Inverse folding.
């Protein structure tokens, strides 16, 4: 599966406002995630206090390179390894995705139109599928 051309265009067009607000978005995402799914808090027990900043940087890099994900290969592999170390499972991705999209809506307000949210949802789950596949390989090798 690949991303639709429309999604790529929308993510690229919104990359700058998302990047400018990425730390607020990711901080809000964790609030929503932990409120809605308190069981996920244990996955972040060893996370650094600036975890939301790291995720913000990753979101920005993803948006900026959405057409050239091969550039992010090493970073995605490190992320998958961290997920395996902390016990992230495929069922966690929808929880995070819904929380992330809610945070985008909360922070960007009216700029987060249905069209924008749909594109970011497709982009998030596409990336999630890539990470899940790599994590499956890592879990099998462990």
């Amino acid at each position: 599966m690949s991303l639709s051309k429309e999604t790529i265009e929308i993510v690229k067009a919104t990359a700058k406002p998302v990047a400018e607000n990425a730390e607020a978005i990711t901080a809000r995402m964790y609030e929503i995630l932990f409120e809605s799914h308190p069981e996920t808090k244990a996955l972040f027990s060893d996370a650094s206090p600036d975890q939301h900043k790291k995720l913000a940087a990753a979101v920005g890099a993803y948006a900026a390179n959405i057409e050239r994900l091969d550039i992010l290969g090493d970073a995605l592999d490190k992320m998958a390894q961290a997920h395996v170390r902390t016990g992230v499972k495929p069922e966690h991705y929808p929880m995070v995705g819904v929380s992330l999209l809610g945070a985008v809506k909360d922070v960007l307000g009216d700029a987060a139109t249905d069209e924008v949210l749909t594109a970011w949802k497709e982009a998030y789950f596409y990336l999630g599928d890539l990470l899940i596949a790599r994590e499956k390989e890592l879990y099998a090798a462990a």
